[in-house]
Structure formats: C-alpha cells, structure tokens
Amino acid sequence: MTTDIKIRPADGTWVVRAGGAVLGESSNALELTEGDLPFVIYFPRNDIAMALLDRTDHTTECSKKGTANYYSIMSKSRTYDNAVWTYENPAADVAEIKDHLAFTVQDGVNVEQL
Length: 114
Known about the structure:
- By secondary structure, the protein is mostly beta strands.
- The protein has a single domain (5-113), classed as Domain of unknown function (DUF427) (Metal Binding Protein, Guanine Nucleotide Exchange Factor, Chain A, Beta Complex).
- It has no helices and 10 strands.
- It has a 7-stranded antiparallel sheet with strand order 1-4-5-9-8-7-6, with no helix packed on it.
- A hairpin with a 5-residue loop joins strand 4 and strand 5.
- The protein is globular and about 40 Å long.
- The protein starts with a strand and ends with a strand.
- Pfam families: NTP_transf_9.
- InterPro entries: DUF427, DUF427_sf.
- Residues 15-104 form the DUF427 domain.
C-alpha cells in the first residue's frame, strides 16, 4: 500500500447530513488518512440515499488514488455543488474505497460519529 495512505474501518457509527436531512448512516464506513491531512470518512454507497445526489461532469486526478468522480447534493434549501466524491476505479493500493463516497464538510454538510 502507498506508505502515506492508510485505510482502516472507522470506529463506531457515522452519519452524514446535508441541509438538515440525513443522507446516510453507516457502521461500515472507512477512515482514510493521507500524510498529515485530516482523516476522511468514506461511506459505503449502499448506506447513502443516492436519490439525493446528482452526478456531475466534474473529475479530479490523484496520483495515488486515481480519478475522482463527483456528485452534488440536492437538499430542500440548496444545492451543494460537487460536494461528494468517489473513486469508481481506484488504484490497486486503495482498492478498499471502491463503491464508497466521501463528503466535503462545509456549512450545511456535516459528517459525524454517533
């Protein structure tokens, strides 16, 4: 595995909310740490209300993880553009994050441990 990326099961149950609505809750989330950056929680896609997400054309490249595809969150009060990312075909060293989603924490979007 890439030496500065660590992936492990996230302890406990995690929830993601946007615009006051719960988008998902999981006891099977993953915690990814990369170097000195804050950890990121990756939720299994099956634990997220995908009907509240809208796929966008936006992508980014990471030399260690691969191509990230994005979704916007559609809440009652607003749209959070490109606030969700996923690696649909991640690099072999981070294959565990396939079929998982991560969320950009911002005003109105929260990821919390219950």
